[in-house]
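Step 1: inspect the first sequence and its tokens.
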Amino acid sequence: IVETQFINKEQPGQVMNKLRRLFSRARPETQELNILRGILTSIEKKL
């Protein structure tokens, strides 16, 4: 995620906390799913 510049490795902040929550439960919130979509879009653009 850092390699794609989706988050800043110096200040991962709330995004990483939201991702941890996303992967720790079965029903993610809409905002958490949007973060995941953003990550995947960022990765896709870098490829």
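Step 2: inspect the second sequence and its tokens, then contrast the two.
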Amino acid sequence: MHPLLGDSSPKSFLPRASDFLGSEHSAYPETSMDIFEVPRHSSPAKVPEMELLRQISEYTQPYDDVIALLHENHAQPSETPGYQQSFSSPIYVLPTEIMTEILLMVLAGEEFHFYDLDLHCVCEVYILMGVCSWWRELILSHPIFWTLPIDFFWGSGADSSDTEAVRDALKACLSRSGSTLPLKISVRFFDAPSPSQLGLSECLLALAEHKSQWQELTVNVYECRAFEYLFTSVNSGNLGLETEFLFPLLEKLEIGICSRVSSLRPSLLSKIVVNSPRLRTLYLPRSFEATSTFRKSEFKNLTSLTLECYFGRSFGCLLEACPLLQDLDVRDFVPGSDHQELPSIYHTHLRTLTIGRIDPRSTPNVWQSVRLPNLTSLKVAIDYRTLHFSYGDICNRLNDLRRMILLSKCVLQELHFDHLHWISQIDVVAFLEGIPTKSCIVDGLPFERAD
């Protein structure tokens, strides 16, 4: 035995290799005693030093292999120091202003979702807050993170402890947004809340309390009274006290009402528009009869207008009320009950005109006395379902439009027509003849003019 070790040395000084690698490694030395054992027939003086080192290395190699395998199989603990060192990486020493901009870029396009049906309060903001305490403190201390678009949907309207969580999350989000930063809000619910729907009432009231921050508001409801309920909440506080009916930041208002039975009170819309000095974009449902309410003093600042249906004898009345209008999208137009004198309008601001449907009910001569010299984009669709019994009426409506374009002497950059394949090719060519345009698309395909 090696003179430095002695017989009293414990034979469990090193673990067995077979304990880790299996029985196929049983030929390896069992204890550390064997590693340092010198051949019995050789005197230490006769064994060259290099030869002794070689033998020791040969005996220790199996244990080196076992140790390497252990490190490989238990690498997770060794990664902990690296994880801790990651907190000293450059991203953790960035100035707060730069880190804020980075997080805002990550959140670009995100929204807050508050759904009572699925009990959702979802947004990437909550995920980022869970990354580390620094990000959490940064997000909580900056109101701008809480001004992401809010999508609020109340479907069932049934109160429960779960829907209370949605209500509380909505209130917390609104309170963290401060009192001055603009908000983009989408509200969807079926009907005005009943006494048993306290949760919905409280949510709408919470939204109404931040009306001074509304920049974009989209409301989709089933009946008009639900829309009116929302703005009744705006006009009263928690105790029913009258508050200022003013929307200083509102730039975009979209109103969607499914039911065609009820009609939206023009006086309410007029009150909203008058008290929204920055309003530029407006979307109105079919249940609103536009002609009776459009007054130049109220809609003079609009630049974009979408109407599901226009009730009136002439678009001149509409354009006269909106002198700065650049984009007009009319899904349908039918004769109204107005008897006002038809004005002659030379509208220089309108650039884009979209007519969603022309059918036999469409108002005849609706473009009379209207000129659009700077019109650059025109998109028109016909109601092909009525062609078989009203072919002549539809062609007359198209000719009214064609006459206005020619008299306006505008140069169209693009001209789109849909469903013209239901009209004879001769009538299509006749309609397009003489209309100056750089691009003409008919039913999704480029229209080749005959030379």
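Step 3: confirm your contrast with the notes below.
Residues 376 and 412 are 4 Å apart (CA to CA). The chain has three domains: 18-73, 95-288, 336-445.
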